[in-house]
Amino acid sequence: MSSIISLVQRVRTMQNPVEAKPLPDSKPIKFGILGAAAIAPSALIDPAKSHPEAVVYAVAARSHDRAAAFAKKHNIEKVFGGPNGYQELIDSPEIDAIYNPLPNGLHYEWTMKALAAGKHVLLEKPAANTAEETRKMFELADHKGLVLLEAFHYRFHPVANRVKAIIESGELGPVKSTKTSLAIPRGIMKPDDIRFNYSIGGGALMDMGCYTINAMRYFAGVEPTSVLSVEHDLDSPQVDRKTVAKFALPGNITSTIFCDLAMPPALKIIPQLPDINATIECEKGRIQIMNYVMPTAYHSITVTPTGKKSRVEKAYTFPDLGEPWWSSYRYQLEAFINKVKGRPPHVWVTKEDSIKNMEVIESVYAKSGLGSRPKSEYVPPSSE
Ligand SMILES: *[C@@H]1O[C@H](CO)[C@@H](O)[C@H](O)[C@H]1NC(C)=O
Ligand SMILES: *[C@@H]1O[C@H](CO)[C@@H](O)[C@H](O)[C@H]1NC(C)=O
Ligand SMILES: *[C@@H]1O[C@H](CO)[C@@H](O)[C@H](O)[C@H]1NC(C)=O
């Protein structure tokens, strides 16, 4: 019972945090959001409220009315609408950083444009439709001396870091296999959700598989050498609703990923529970994580050394950072702002990590025959 009360308190405070006062000696980083995206409140708007150096200043949408309604609802000062809205927001001298939660197929174009305009970018995952585009974005960010981060928020939360520390401690010996899942029941994503649209970068492997692949690579600590097998269920000819892939990794490690945007009910009638679990089998034991992706509401880390009793760990805060109600996005914002301010972040997801993740996604699509999602038609001006 008390754990349910604390769960409710964490979720409530996460959504309505005590608003932080600006710091007298640090100018806040002003964000502009591209698109009135449903993810923006949890990913940036709510986290920014409790960060003394983050302000969500502007939003742009193709429809001015939509942008205005979103701005009103979320108390955002500035609205950009109409066909030039995105570019006007990017060009606004008031803005320091862009949050790009546009459909995957638009990530490359608008991130390149934002970087060209001198803005830091917090970019939703997966970084783009291809690894090549991902490389180009990071090269431009480096060239311009700007911060670009692919928003793998779970990596900034204490849970992923605690699990990594257990693995690295050697307590359980070397990793032998991993299984990372992210699957939700049918009905949460509407059939016309953009995640099912090939032309703008749809597919379960893109939207959810990107987490399972990232977590596989992070926990295994080595990169896959080959895709052993892929099974999928299709939503439409080029779009996977579900993907299961197996990989070979150095050190005789085998890994499985499972993602599904719309799990059908068991026996056609019993709705399935979300599967957000990860299991890491080591030579001398096993780690099971329940909810490694959004751990703030609830999670567990079950550590079972072979032949011994299990222990269950929780990790809501770092010893020197965070509050139990900080979401993974709030931890991510902490790191992003620190990086922009030239201070060391507690965790970072590097350029190499983001490029590699996209390469692995593309290798699975190559193996399955579905092929990479379409390249952007945007051609940046050659001076960049
Ligand atoms: C997919 O997205 C494109 C670009 O927004 C749109 O033109 C097309 O109608 C969409 N297709 C489906 C099946 O919704
Ligand atoms: C590789 O791993 C498999 C499965 O865990 C095991 O059966 C096999 O003996 C291992 N091979 C080597 C060379 O360690
Ligand atoms: C996820 O892990 C929890 C705790 O270990 C377990 O109770 C649950 O059955 C697992 N879910 C799936 C789908 O494997």
TrEMBL record:
Q: What is its EC number?
A: 1.1.1.179
UniProt KW Oxidoreductase keyword: yes
**Pfam families, per database record:** GFO_IDH_MocA (PF01408), GFO_IDH_MocA_C3 (PF22725)
What one GO molecular function would you report for this record?
D-xylose 1-dehydrogenase (NADP+) activity
Identify the keywords attached in UniProt to this record, alphabetized: Oxidoreductase
Matching InterPro entries, A to Z? Gfo/Idh/MocA-like_OxRdtase_N (IPR000683), Gfo/Idh/MocA_domain (IPR050984), GFO_IDH_MocA-like_dom (IPR055170), NAD(P)-bd_dom_sf (IPR036291)
The protein's matches in Gene3D superfamilies, at most eight in alphabetical order, are given as: Dihydrodipicolinate Reductase, domain 2, NAD(P)-binding Rossmann-like Domain
Q: Give the highest taxon in the source lineage.
A: Eukaryota
- Would the keyword Oxidoreductase be found if you checked this record's keyword annotation? yes
Indicate the segments forming the GFO/IDH/MocA-like oxidoreductase domain, all copies: 162-287
**What does the record give as the reaction this protein catalyses?**
D-xylose + NADP(+) = D-xylono-1,5-lactone + NADPH + H(+)
Residue span(s) of domain Gfo/Idh/MocA-like oxidoreductase N-terminal: 29-149
Q: Which family does it belong to?
A: Belongs to the Gfo/Idh/MocA family.
Protein name, UniProt field: D-xylose 1-dehydrogenase (NADP(+), D-xylono-1,5-lactone-forming)
